[in-house]
UniProtKB/TrEMBL annotation:
UniProt membrane topology term: Multi-pass membrane protein
Signal peptide: none
Residue ranges, annotated region (Disordered): 340-385
Listed InterPro entries: HD (IPR001356), Homeodomain-like_sf (IPR009057), Lag1/Lac1-like (IPR016439), TLC-dom (IPR006634)
Feature: DNA-binding region: 74-130
Sorted UniProt keywords: DNA-binding, Endoplasmic reticulum, Homeobox, Lipid biosynthesis, Lipid metabolism, Membrane, Nucleus, Transferase, Transmembrane, Transmembrane helix
Record-given protein name: Ceramide synthase 2
Lineage of origin: Eukaryota, Metazoa, Chordata, Craniata, Vertebrata
Provenance organism: Coilia grayii (Gray's grenadier anchovy)
GO cellular component: endoplasmic reticulum membrane; nucleus
């Protein structure tokens, strides 16, 4: 049954224009070589190698670089041991409603403010520190930078780098060249490694969008390889790598506190992102994959599938550009740092923590002395996390 389903799924008419098919992608004796689906298995050991190299890189390169750039981690006040609150934090909610705070206050003998402070500190303990963020950003920066220039070197002398019509010339009978093979295998292996490590990486506000992006990218690269959309695929990968390394470098300088450097790099990143993702990608790449093939072949399922994946990527481009605009607001007078809108920030500053510590030492809250774990009068005034 599975063999029959597989045979039906890979029928010529689904993935190729009428009159063309898998037979056109057979290797020629002593001559042309074409991409094969079994080639993709090599990306798994490549992904494993990337995971190992990343650990060594973060330990031997990123950590010393963080020290050199002055990445300093803010000292966080740890939440005191409280089994009752810890149980609620893990099993119920990290952000208890006010009614729950009142109940926990009565059960623990603490004031409502002390309960709120405990949850705030406990949440801060689970947030990744700057050093971890810096390590991840420096790893991605290094790969994207090398991948961009390697891809540029592999494509700059190819005719489809300048003429979009060349992406489909003689499709699908376009022989594979070694630079395309390694460009594809390394890029795909890297994105697979990101998907494997996403559970341990810093979780940002666009976590779900990142998962969708990784899956769509892996499907897009794999599919374009199997059906020999390789020329378009290499251009798509180059477009994406052209701005990613700028964002990662801006993050690195942001974590290091180099505010002006971060801001200048972010300006360049925003311009490159807009040009490549919102102009070149839809009006050059997608025009070449959606409009131009219609003048050569009748539509087929593979045409819609491939362009559907590109549509998903373009929607994500628009989503991320909106985040970039939000970050750009920080350039207005009075704002002197760019922060990653996708990251969670600590919920208190140093002055508030110092004030809280002083209150604890004196056995007081901002509303007066604590009596049996409660302030005598707080008028329901509390600080919102």
């Amino acid at each position: 049954m599975l063999q029959g389903l597989r045979a039906w799924f890979w029928q010529d008419w689904l993935w190729f224009p009428e009159g063309l098919g898998w037979a056109d992608l057979e290797n020629k004796d002593g001559g042309e070589v074409f991409a094969k689906s079994e080639d993709l298995w090599v990306t798994l050991p490549i992904a494993l190698c990337f995971l190992i190299i990343r650990q060594v890189f973060e330990w031997k390169v990123a950590t010393p670089l963080a020290t050199l750039l002055g990445v300093r981690e803010k000292v966080r006040v740890e939440a005191s041991h409280n089994p009752l609150l810890e149980s609620y934090f893990r099993s119920a909610s990290k952000h208890p409603a006010q009614s729950a705070v009142v109940t926990l206050s009565k059960q623990s003998g603490w004031s409502e403010r002390q309960v709120q402070r405990w949850f705030r500190r406990r949440r801060n303990q689970e947030r990744p520190n700057k050093l971890k963020k810096f390590r991840e950003a420096s790893w991605r920066f290094t790969f994207y930078l090398l991948a961009f220039f390697a891809g540029l070197g592999a494509l700059v002398d190819k005719p489809w780098f300048y003429e979009k019509e060349e992406m489909w010339k003689e499709f699908p009978k376009m022989p594979l060249i070694p630079s395309q093979y390694w460009y594809y295998m390394i890029e795909l292996g890297f994105y697979i490694s990101l998907l494997f490590s996403v559970a341990s990486d810093v979780k940002r506000k666009d976590f779900k969008e990142q998962i969708v992006h990784h899956v769509a990218t892996i499907l897009l690269i794999s599919f374009s390889w199997v059906v020999n959309y390789i020329r378009a695929g290499t251009m798509i990968m180059l477009i994406h790598d052209s701005s990613d390394y700028l964002l990662e470098s801006a993050k690195m300088f942001n974590y290091a506190g180099w505010r002006n450097t971060c801001n200048y790099i972010f300006i360049v990143f925003a311009m490159v992102f807009f040009i490549t993702r919102l102009i070149l990608f839809p009006f050059w790449i997608m025009h070449a994959t959606i409009v131009y093939p219609l003048s050569l072949y009748p539509t087929f399922f593979g045409y819609y599938f491939f362009n559907g994946l590109l549509m998903v990527l373009q929607c994500l481009h628009i989503f991320w550009f909106l985040l970039i605009l939000r970050m750009a607001i920080k350039f207005l007078p009075g704002n002197n740092i760019v922060e990653d809108e996708r990251s969670d920030r600590d919920e208190t500053d140093d002055s508030e923590e110092e004030e809280d510590e002083e209150e604890e030492k004196n056995g007081k809250t901002k509303n007066g002395p604590v009596q049996n774990g409660h302030s005598p009068l707080n008028n329901n005034h509390r600080k919102i996390d």
